[in-house]
Amino acid sequence: ADAGSSDRLEGIKNTVLASRDKFRACFDAWAKTNPAGKEVNVMLSIKLNPDGSFVSAAFDPSKTDLTDKTAETCMVDVAKSLSYPTSPSGKETTYRHPFVFKARK
């Protein structure tokens, strides 16, 4: 019954994708005062307890172009507000999700 970490990661990915508009809103707020048309890569690292409860989240600076604390805090708050699946193997999970945002014209 336990397919390993891959089945939990798929559930986490689906949870994040279902809230992409909320994450996007954080970028849009930043983009209002920054160059239009710029593409930004963000790698959001999310740590979860085995029961799916949120532990922490942060940008991975080695894979993130955006260095704005307000945008990062906003995205962390969105990640914190979501409900994640439990770990079938009973382990803590770190999930890394890539976002690519481009300012709207």
Can you describe this structure?
This protein is of the alpha+beta class. It contains three helices and three strands, in the order H-H-E-E-H-E. It has a three-stranded antiparallel β-sheet. The protein is elongated and about 45 Å long.
- Overall shape: it is elongated
Quickly give the structural class.
Answer: alpha+beta
Which bin fits the share of residues in helices? 25-40%
Mean pLDDT: 89
Low-confidence stretches: none
Reported for the largest beta sheet, the result is: 3 strands, antiparallel
End-to-end separation in angstroms reads 48 Å
- Helix count, DSSP H or I runs of 4 or more residues: 3
Order of helices and strands: HHEEHE
DSSP strand tally: 3
Strand order of the largest sheet: 2-1-3
What proportion of the residues form beta strands (DSSP E)?
Answer: 15-25%
Report Rg. 14 Å
Ordered list of secondary-structure elements with their pairings:
Layout: H1 5-18, H2 20-31, E1 39-48, E2 54-59, H3 69-81, E3 93-102
Antiparallel strand pairs: 1-2, 1-3
Helix pairs in contact: 2-3
What attributes characterize this protein structure?
alpha+beta, 37% helix, three-stranded antiparallel β-sheet, 105 residues
Summarize this, please?
By secondary structure, the protein is an alpha+beta fold. Helices cover 37% and strands 25% of the residues.
